[in-house]
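=== RUN LOG ===
request id: a7f3
mode: sequence -> structure
chains: 1
length: 223
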Amino acid sequence: MPIRGVLFDWGDTLFHAPHAPEVIVDAARAAGVPLADGAARRIWDELWEAGKTPEEIGKGRDLSAAAHREVWSALFARADRLVPGISQALYERVMDPASWVPYADAAPTLRALRERGVRTGVVSNVPRDLRPLFVAHGMADLVDAFTHSFEVGAEKPDPAIFLAACERIGVAPADSLMVGDHPTADGGAAAAGLRVYILPADQDGDVRGLAHVLELVTRYASP
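=== RESULT ===
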């Protein structure tokens, strides 16, 4: 069956936060704590990976702005003993979508899908509207619909959010592909009847590997 619609996760799929270790280093310097760049990267990687565990995902953090701040701040507080006050700095400077930037292959992939007549959507566990961010980066016209967890009252991996996303782009689940980075959260689309492609953890610099999505669309379009 051909793929007529592609849904994309947002964070770590289309956009990324490029400066989290820098925020940690700056906060450490302000607190008088010596911290090397490599150590800052390890701290961030540990916190970010912890944030992707089923335990953290299941806390309802993306159903409201208040819950988002509370849950993420509590997680980041694990590093306060290493760098006093880092939890607040990370939340304010890293968790704001405005500080995130698109991967180099995000816009070209969305544009290529648009040219092929494939409907596209962004489905994300977030507590705020992502549309202004796509407008700011000149990518708003490359996405047919946005589905946010806080708007529909359901978070990935709940099938409800994927079904809502398919309805918004006007494509049946069986004709849609979900693209994301998280096997549990994004993989939940399978229960809603979508095909799923989980991006590899490794990537080539600022290139996320989204070109493979075009290969999948071409493959399924072939007789």
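=== NOTES ===
The longest helix spans residues 37-50.
The first strand starts at residue 5 and ends at 8.
=== END ===
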